[in-house]
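Bug #77: duplicate submission created two jobs. Keeping one. Sequence:
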Amino acid sequence: MTAPAQQVTCPACGEPLAAGAQFCEACGASVSAVSPAAVPGAESPLDELSPISTPTARDLGGTATPAVAAPRACAECGSPVGDDGYCTVCGSKAPSERDHFEQAPASWVAGVCDRGVKHSRNEDAMALFAEPAQGGRAVLIVCDGVSNSDGSDVASLAAARAALEVLRPPLPKGIGGAASADAVATRVLTTAADAANTAVIAHTEPSSPRPASCTFAVGLVDGSTVRCAIIGDSRAYLLPDAGGGTQLLPDDSMAQALIAAGHPRLEAEASPQAHAITKWLGADSPDVVPRVATVTAGAPGWLVVCSDGLWNYASEPDALRAQLDAAGTSEPLALASALVAWAIEQGGHDNITVALARVGPVPAQDAAPVSSPEPVGENATDDERQVHG
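Kept job's structure:
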C-alpha cells in the first residue's frame, strides 16, 4: 500500500504549500527545494538568503554556515510560536515574518525591510552581500513590488535574490582604464536587471490581467568606487558625513518627468500621479535596461539604497542626511532600524526598506586585505505604475 502524501508546509509561516512551490503564497518566503524543516524529525539549515533574521540567522557575507532558527516568540505572551503560526500557549496568530526582516552580512552593511502601517502585506524586498572588512565589496539590492499587480510580494523577493546571484561575484576589471571597467560594470548590472525581470515573470501567472511587477535599485561598493542601477522609483543616495549628499540617479516616474519639465521637486512629488512609475520589472514592462551611474566616495559616509516608503518623508539628500544624524548611532543595523522607525512615525503609508553601507576611506586596521604574493586572511500605492497606451 502506498503511504498517503504528506502535506508540506512553509518553514517560515507554517501555511500549506502547493506541490512544487518555490515560494510561499502566504508570506513570500523561499521554500525552493522543499525545506527539510517541513518534514517532521528532519533538521534544516536556514537558507543563507532567507528573509527571516534572528541573532543566529543572518547572511554572514555570503557564507553558507548552517544556522537553525530558534522558535519565534509570541508578541502577546512571549511563548514559542508553533509550526502552524499560532502561539503554543495563548493561541494568538503570529504575524508573517515576511512583514519585517533584517539582514546584516557584515559589520559595515545592513538592511531592514518592513510592512509599514497602512499596507496589509510587505511587497518590498531586499538582498544583501558584503565582504567582512569595510573597504571591500558589498551589494545592496532593493525591489519594491507594485501594489496593484498580482503576487508582487513574491516576485519582488525573487527578483532581489536573482539579481544578487549575478552581482555576488567580483566584477570583471575590463581590458584597461576606467572607461572599460565602467562599460563592463554597466553590462553586468544590465544582466542583473534582466535576471531579476526573468524571476518576476517566472513568478507571474501567465493569465493574470495584472502581472507581477516591481522596481529595482542596486548599490555596489568596491573600495571607494560606488556604482548604482535604477529602474523605477527606488533610490540610491551617497551621503558623506560632512558636506552635501547626492541622489545618485533620477527616478523613472511621473514626478521626475515633472521635475525635468521645470516643476519644483516638492510640487512634483506632491502631485497626484507622482508615484506612477514609467519603468518597472515584469511581463508587461516595455524596457528593463537600468540607468547606471558610477561615483567615487572620497570622504567617509553612507550609501543608502531605499524604497519610497522612506524617501517619501525625506526626499532631498540633506533631509535624509539629517535623519541619519538624528538616529544617534553609526552601527548599520541600528541605523537602518532607526530610519524605518522614523518612517513609521511619519505615518508608514507604504512598505519601507532601507539598506546601507559605510563607504569612503577607512582606517588602515579596518581596511579589506590587499593582494600580495603571500596569502593573507581573507526586498506603493495603486497609482504606482504608469499605464502605457
